[in-house]
Every structure is written in C-alpha cells, then in structure tokens.
C-alpha cells in the first residue's frame, strides 16, 4: 500500500501550506492548472499558491481522504475554480481521462505539475521486490510521462510543465534506491522534453526539494525507523526540514512569466544542501 496507517501521529502538527502574508499579485490570472498529488503536502502548497495568484486549479489524488475536498474548498475560497479527480497516475487511460476532464471543466490547460509520487524505504537492494520496484517506476516516472503526453495537445505557447524531483536525484540515498532512481529519471524527461518543446514556446522545469514536512516522510519512514522522521532536518545546513509553504513560490515562479527564459532547469529548494548537476 502507498500510505501506511497510523503514522499521522508522527507528523509535525499543523503543516502550513500557504501563509496569510503571501499576497498574490495576479501572476497566474486566468491560467488553468493541473497538479498531480495536489491534495497533500507540496502539491497542495503549489495548488493554493497558484489559486492565490489567480489560477483555476485541478488536483489529481490517489486516496479517498478528506484532503482533496479540503484542498478544493481552499482553492475556491481564493475565488477560483477547483476540481479534484481521484485516480492512479500509473494508468495511462486514467491520465487521458483526467486531462480531458480538466480541459472540459476549465476550458483549457496552461500549467501541468507532475508531483504525485510514492516512496518506500528499503535498506538493502535485495529487499526490494519486483512489485515495489515497479510501483516506483509506474507512479513516479510513468505517471509524469502519461499525464504530460495527454496534456500536450492542449498546451499552447507560454504553457509550463513542472516536475517535482528531489535532492535524492542528485545526492542519492542509500535507503531510497528505487525512489532516487525515479527522481533522477524525472530529470532526464524534464531536460529532454524541454528541448523538444522549445520551438512551441512550452517550458519544462523541475523543483527539487530537500526534506519537507509532509505525510510522505512518516508514511515511508514511520514504521521502519520513526527516529528518522524526528531527525528529518538533520542533514540540512539550515538545521531543519522545510515547510510546505516554503515550496509554493518556487512553483509560481516556474509557472509564471517571471521565468520566460528558464527551461530544462532544476530549482533546488533545500535549506542549503549542496548538490551536483
Ligand atoms: P504527500 O504524500 O503529502 O503527497 C503526495 C500525494 O501524491 C498523495 O497525497 C497522493 O494523493 C498522491 N499520489 C501518490 N500516488 C499516486 C498515484 N499513484 N496516483 C495519483 N496520485 C498519487 O507527499 P509530498 O512530500 O508532498 O510529495 C510531493 C512530491 O515531492 C513527490 O514527488 C515527492 O517525491 C517530492 N519530494 C518530497 C520531499 C519531502 O521531503 N516531502 C522531498 C523531496 C521531494
């Protein structure tokens, strides 16, 4: 399963996805966005920042929890259209339908954020089952490909595609071999697609977060080594993990006209961790 039960209590309470101090300035006025994994964590932070900047936002999510409804409620509270679509991005058929649903509901699509991912901890390569390995590939990299391929016919000049990669794509992680592999593969897709779409005026970039307080960390680490959750920020020069709201503005930058000369790039948001590549 993708989310292990009973780990919520390991979470730092009251994760903030957007601060009242964040004043939108219409950077995404009239734009229409689709964010996978937009119900929770970093994806929800991106969704709420986009809405405050004037975009209608659809989110794709896996599990039937109250998170998706709450995210839509918060998007609508910004005076924008919100839409939640349940399904699994590892299915190309679902991805096609989800994109069509967004285009029908919003009348177009300008911003696509490929953010949904699974992460399983395994300290030894021989513990990684075929299924576990395949699930990482299916969700993290195939999902990015399926959603993006389905979206492309709808994207016009000025559109922006963004992937959520990770520090692990660059630094590696001995406990997250399969996950880190997919995060590095996302970078390959991002850079190559950026080149392919440059003549169409469509930009493709990635955000690479360091450790961030979201349900992903306790869900993957919680039952293996809860101390790792408590220590989430230890490897960060700033001495702490990030909050979801600290990621949102990076997505706004890459989605908006503030970054018209930026494509094929990675924006590292990680409290000072030094990365190669
Ligand atoms: P999260 O668990 O809060 O949110 C991820 C969401 O993805 C889930 O709520 C779920 O609805 C969705 N999802 C998962 N599998 C799916 C599937 N098969 N189909 C559709 N939706 C699916 O996690 P998060 O930490 O906000 O992660 C968001 C992104 O950030 C991921 O790509 C992750 O790799 C990346 N990231 C997170 C961290 C961190 O420390 N939290 C660090 C680096 C990168």
Automatic annotation (TrEMBL):
Keyword check for Cytoplasm = no
MF (Gene Ontology)? glucose 1-dehydrogenase [NAD(P)+] activity
Q: Which residues form the signal peptide?
A: none
As recorded in UniProt, its EC number(s) are 1.1.1.47
Instruction: Output the superkingdom of the source species.
Output: Bacteria
Q: What class of enzyme is it?
A: oxidoreductase
UniProt keyword list: Oxidoreductase
Which InterPro entries does the record associate with it?
NAD(P)-bd_dom_sf (IPR036291), SDR_fam (IPR002347)
NCBIfam families on file = PRK07231.1 (NF005559)
Q: Which family does it belong to?
A: Belongs to the short-chain dehydrogenases/reductases (SDR) family.
Name of the molecule in the record? Glucose 1-dehydrogenase
């Amino acid at each position: 399963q993708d989310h292990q039960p009973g780990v919520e209590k390991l979470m730092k309470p009251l994760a903030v996805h957007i601060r009242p101090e964040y004043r939108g300035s219409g950077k995404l006025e009239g734009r229409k966005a689709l964010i996978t994994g937009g119900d929770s964590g970093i994806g929800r932070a991106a969704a709420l920042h986009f809405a405050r900047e004037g975009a209608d936002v659809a989110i794709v999510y896996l599990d039937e929890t109250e998170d998706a409804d709450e995210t839509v409620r918060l998007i609508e509270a910004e005076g924008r259209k919100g839409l939640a679509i349940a399904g699994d991005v590892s299915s190309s058929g679902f991805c096609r339908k989800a994109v069509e649903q967004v285009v029908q509901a919003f009348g177009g699509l300008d911003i696509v954020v490929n953010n949904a991912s699974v992460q399983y901890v395994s300290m030894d390569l021989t513990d990684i089952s075929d299924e576990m390995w395949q699930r990482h590939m299916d969700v993290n990299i195939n999902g990015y490909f399926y959603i993006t391929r389905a979206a492309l016919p709808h994207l016009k000049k000025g559109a922006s595609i963004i992937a959520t990669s990770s520090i692990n794509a660059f630094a590696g992680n001995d406990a997250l071999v399969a996950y880190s592999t997919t995060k590095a593969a996302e970078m390959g897709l991002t850079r190559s697609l950026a080149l392919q779409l440059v003549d169409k005026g469509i930009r493709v970039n990635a955000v690479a977060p360091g450790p961030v307080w979201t349900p992903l960390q306790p869900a993957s680490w919680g039952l293996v080594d809860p101390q790792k959750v408590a220590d989430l920020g230890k490897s960060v020069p700033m001495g702490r993990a990030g909050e979801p709201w600290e990621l949102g503005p990076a997505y706004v930058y890459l989605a908006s006209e503030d970054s018209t000369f930026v494509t094929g790039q990675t924006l590292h948001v990680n409290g000072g961790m030094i990365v190669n590549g």
